[in-house]
Amino acid sequence: MTAAAPTTLAGSSKGGVRAFKNTLATVLVTAAFGIALIPLVWLLWTVLSKGLKTITQSGWWTSSQRNITYRKPGGGVWHAILGTAEQVLLCTLISVPIALLVGIYLIEYGGGRLAKLTSFMVDILTGIPSIVAALFIYAVFITTFHGQRAGIYVSLALVMLMVPVIVRTTEEMLKLVPNELREASYALGVPKWKTIVKIVVPTAFSGIVTGIMLGIARVAGETAPLLILVGYSPDTNSNLLSGFQGSLPGMIYAQVPQLGNIRYHYAADRMWGSALTLIIIVMALNLVARLVARRSKVSN
Amino acid sequence: MAKRIEAKNLNIYYSKFLAVSEVNFTIAPRSVTAFIGPSGCGKSTVLRTINRMHEVIAGAHVQGDVLLDGENIYGSAVDPVDVRRTIGMVFQRPNPFPTMSIYDNVVAGLKLQSGRIKKVELDDTVEKSLRGANLWEEVKDRLGKPGAGLSGGQQQRLCIARAIAVEPQVLLMDEPCSALDPISTLAIEDLIQSLKEKYTIVIVTHNMQQAARVSERTAFFNLAGVGKPGQLVEIDDTQKIFSNPSEQRTEDYISGRFG
Which residue of A has its CA nearest to B51? Predict the structure, then answer.
């Protein structure tokens, strides 16, 4: 504190330097925001401009790619939506109960060695590439137990990718529930399990729903498990237990071999169309999740 | 309905750390007892051992007995959940359940304890408890609104209504007015005066005027020395504590010479 205090407020030269730093930081932060936005807007624009005319064709949402070749226009995406929806739904039905219970265990009951080990395992699982998860399921169910490739195995591989996402968000959301609420409930003579079911989880509900939606968005676009465990069928196949199945990532991938074809552009159109369809579906799910979350939102 | 509380040779630990040592007292039914003392002397800790809320914190445990009408609440056959149903608690910061309406907050304890109860009975309980907490007139037209939308003082009275809705024998209050303005504080103090006809009340407070205003008996807690555990210095009639305490340390504290 050797510097002399400025005699007048306006005369302080430090004020000017501080204002300049403030402006500089504001500019930098805003620029970073803009740069981060560029790829997002670019991607959305590209997919939208190239895919819009395909998804507005008649029959796009209701028909399959049966008997459609790269030399023919038309056909739709229904078989792919159905396959993806079935696989993701089964995956969600398996993952959500497991992940919620693990998250609740780690936050409400954990603290011991088992909890530390579990948390570590969830960390590892988070980093597993989808193709490794797919190979694991292939090794267990197809090589060892001699199963045939089918949609159900895709669901199982996706479970391994979805569980850690939901566990982590559930943990974060439960941590946000103030301890005072738990104590208030205990002080009313409410047992611990009921406090968790009736007080803690409802308070964190909207966040947990968001976590589940993040999980769905994470797995809906996964491609490696599809290629390894079910393949791709241009026909509608609603049977998760046997046969090739259509899927949105699978349909995108199936168009790739004809992308360089100069005479026929139908494959390329279909690829952009199915990419746009996948984005629309994931966005719609996110919107639904937000509505659900808002309806149950904690009012303050 | 109200019950007598006795503490015998109570030692309270956080893991290996002895927080409060050798506490002995008797609290008569239908009375208000205030716990006063400097910060960190263990008065809240002692309060929380009376309904076994203390052990919610990992590693916390006690030695010695707390008797409720002669029955040891730390007996091996006693379920802490049952203890807390008999001995209610109001906390320093109002903590209504944020997902619930005013109505649901009041009956939360009843519903969560015993499952389905007739709507008529619930309605009765809500009115009785809110009247008991001096809140009925202010909220009777908006029982369906969220409890978190009330003012701080109203929220605290809602928490008191919630605590008395399960008809406890004893009500513990951990600095219930420290987050409230003087008018809300006055409302709570009036409420304590009317509640003592039915309940045994123990209140922790930092406000010595408040202790003098609301309580019949006052317990003064202090640390035995730097780095030593907290202890109960003396417990006596409030009037005596504030006019002619037996211990010099109490005299020093209430006259503002330290703490």
Answer: A187
Q: Helices A248-255 and A266-295 meet at what angle, rounded to 10?
A: 160
Q: Mean of the per-residue pLDDT values for chain A?
A: 90
Range of the domain at A169: 78-295
Using alpha carbons only, how large is chain B's radius of gyration in Å? 18
Q: Is A199 in Cβ contact with B95 (below 8 Å)? A: no
Q: B95 vs A198: CB contact, 8 Å cut-off? A: no
In this structure, is residue A64 part of a structural domain? no
The complex scores an ipTM of 0.90
Question: Which residues in chain B touch residue A190, judged by CB atoms under 8 angstroms apart?
Answer: 81, 108-109, 112-113
Q: Does some domain include residue A56?
A: no
**Domains in chain B with CATH codes:** 5-97+168-254 (3.40.50.300)
For residue B99, the chain A residue with the least C-alpha distance is A298
Interchain pair B109, A190: CB under 8 A: yes
- Whether B90 contacts B156, CB under 8 Å: yes
Q: How many domains does chain A have?
A: 1
B-chain CB neighbours of A111 within 8 Å are 58
Q: In angstroms, how far apart are the furthest CA atoms of chain B?
A: 57
Q: What is the pLDDT of residues A236-289, one digit of tens each?
A: 999 999 999 999 999 999 999 988 888 888 999 999 999 999 999 999 988 888
Nearest to B215 by CA among B188, B196, B234, B243: B196
